[in-house]
Amino acid sequence: MVTMVGCCTVKTRPPTSSRYPYRATVERETTIRAGFSKVQTGMSMDQVHAILGLPDEVTPLYEPMIPDGKQTGFSQWYLVQRMAESGSVVARDEKLVVVRTDLEMKVVEVQHWGL
After folding, report:
1. Per the confidence metrics, is the pTM higher than 0.90?
2. What is the tens place of the pLDDT at every residue in 71-104?
């Protein structure tokens, strides 16, 4: 699936679910857990996709703390678990990996929550 995000089009998986709680398949969870530590700064998103597959969600990334800041990249979300649609990470009981890229789609940061 191709999605328009901010200034660019990016590849994503079809929407994971409109129902909550959401839990990735065992195969997808295994891929994310085993692969996220292999993702390194400077990698292309094609390299990341080869390791983790396509992201579940992609959101634009903007300059922090600047009103109307310019877009600086993307956050690509790989969900293992999300128990509620809204609220904090704790309230949603999320387990995920987020890969942040610059506008050239090169990895600048990898974080994982709850894994």
Report:
1. no
2. 999 999 999 999 988 888 788 899 999 999 999 9
Distances (CA, A) of 66 to 62, 63, 69, 71: 9, 6, 5, 11
Task: Give the whole-angstrom CA distance, residue 30 versus residue 62.
Answer: 31
With contact defined as beta carbons under 8 Å apart, do 75 and 50 qualify?
Answer: no
- Region of 42 (left: φ > 0; alpha: ψ -120 to 50; beta: rest) is left
- Rounded Cα distance between 30 and 111, Å, is 17
Please give the tally of structural domains in the chain: 1
pLDDT in tens, 2-23: 455 555 555 655 555 457 889 9
Which residues form the domain of 27?
Answer: 2-113
Residues 6+ apart with CB under 8 A from 60: 5, 6, 7, 71, 73, 74, 75
